[in-house]
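Fold sample X.
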Amino acid sequence: MAAPASTHALHAVLSPAVTLVDERRALYRLGLDLFAPDAELSDNLADHPIVRYEIGRALAGESGLDPARLIEVAAMSVRDVGIAVAADPAAADVLEAPLRIVAPPNTRPQPLTEVDGDRFETALAIVAEGVRLFRELAPAMAEDLLGHVSMLAVMKRETSGGVVSASTRYVPGIVLIDEPSVPMEVAEALVHEGAHEKFFDMAITKDFLDSGAEDADYFQTSWSGARWPLEQTFAAWHAYSCLAQFFLSVGAEQLGPDSLLAKASERAAEIGRWLLVHERDLLGDARWLLRALMGEATDSSGQGLAPSEVDDPPGVAVSCHLSRDHVFRLSSNVQYRRSISGRVVAGRQANPPRIYWLDEDAGWAIGQCGRDGTPQKFERLVLRATGEWQVGSAEVRRRLENAFGELLLADLVERTPEKEL
């Protein structure tokens, strides 16, 4: 078995952190486009955990979307200590959702804020030192993970119910920690929950899990007997893998009383072995990351496999026969966004809306169908793509037939013979 590479290096193979964050922003901006096409999200708004929560609820069909609400929640004041820390006296109300979701039974966690005076300032100083310590001990890992943590909130110890640190995919971007006593508690929490936040972003932009994950086998931990569904199992394995790597850097630093660092490697190995047995329940990018971090992402020559070489289970090829006279236009109520990576995410209004990450050819094809409804003749698109792609027209035609087959199946474009226009 080959030695595994570092977590941050493998993450960068899938997508550099700055690219992954931009793809996530494109997805949330698309969500806003579908409900409020005249509104726009700055990077700060697109990263805000409660803004993302509100857009996520709308995309899940749970509620409508009020753009004014997004501006309102983003006005909550924070203190910047290398990471934005919730400081506003209204934080308990604004952050009600994540506080409620992570709360143990019969508890109601409350955040420390500026109204708590010296107690808040003391906690803030420990957080600042914890962020500094993380960056000092593991700078590459910190650079990789902290871009996915948009906000941190410190819970009052007497209200937290023993929660050491927590995050939730329903309110991505925020990390909640118990009132810390030493900086290493903060650093470890940022590794643990930052790994989860990284996973949340990969799960919504890459090929990680599909709806079949809900019916997959459960993993049972040897250390507590808890049973986890596949998504939680993969997220835990990923976090323990990051913690195990971080533990190699901590040296003689004082650990927190609830530290998992010494147990991380053993637990990551246990979960990873189970995931390898059940890897067919994962999609290609998740299987590649699993094999790579477990030291098994190699081909017969011992060379590392690229993510594209770990294929998803065979599916039904989508194609259609198109004549030179077919004409395409964007379907009504369809929006799309292109990220800095060139990847395109598209969606159409439904209840709930349908969202699709498009492959390169389909992303190019939908980009030719202007938002103004101007029809595009297939033969003209073949000529244009032949010039841009620098491949033969027969290959271009085949690829465009596949691309438009995908777009038609998703009802993202409409096809009309020219004579019917």
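Fold sample Y, listed below.
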Amino acid sequence: MLRFSKVMLMAVFVLMAACKKGEPVDEFYFASFTAELLALPGTTTIDAYVDGVKVDSLESGKIIGTASPLMLAAGRESTIAFKKAGTDEVLIDTVVNVTAGDKLALKLACSPELGIQSFISASEGNIAVDTAVFFIFNQLPVELQADDVHVDAFLFKYNGTEYVETGISWIDFAKNKLHPNQTKIQVTAEDGSPIEYMVKLKNSETGEYLSDAFGISELGLYFLPGERQIITFRAMQAFGRWKFMTDTAAY
């Protein structure tokens, strides 16, 4: 009986050890995840929590959970939360229900300067030097897009004479939210010259394009060839009037 008790005690000890950060001892009970914090303007260190317990800290441009996997219990819901470092302020969280052996890969965009706090799904691998991969983010002020106005975004390309539609669009381009569609386009021509693109925002109810205070409906885009990037649609004041503008940030 004493021998049996010792065996049971050892099993409990091994199970408890597996719940901590480290290699899972039994894939039938556990899953794991990694988290990458994109290096965007103003991004600072955040703390990672699982079900209210801090498991690690994550610096801008870094990944956690690779050398030492971050563990999740399989077969039940778990809450993964990321908080401003040293505080209880939740920046972004998610509820997951994983299967034993699963390996989740989370990518986070948390930039107070861009106004983004979101999980994203980003492409892997190298990007050709004549190509750009990007997400778009709507941070237009109410002066140019009222909160009750919903828009769709349409991409145009300059063909040497005029801008023509590319067939690429982002439906329901909501304000203060990273659009979930990642886009990949060629941004450099064969002769090395940049290909010019611009976006127009169409009121999804009236079918009319939005214009700024100067009557301009085109938002010019600036791409970083060979990079992943987030393009933010915003505005600036010129001569006391609001004008469309865009910012590009690589990650």
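Sample Y note: The first strand starts at residue 30 and ends at 37.
Also: Confidence is low (pLDDT under 50) at residues 1-21.
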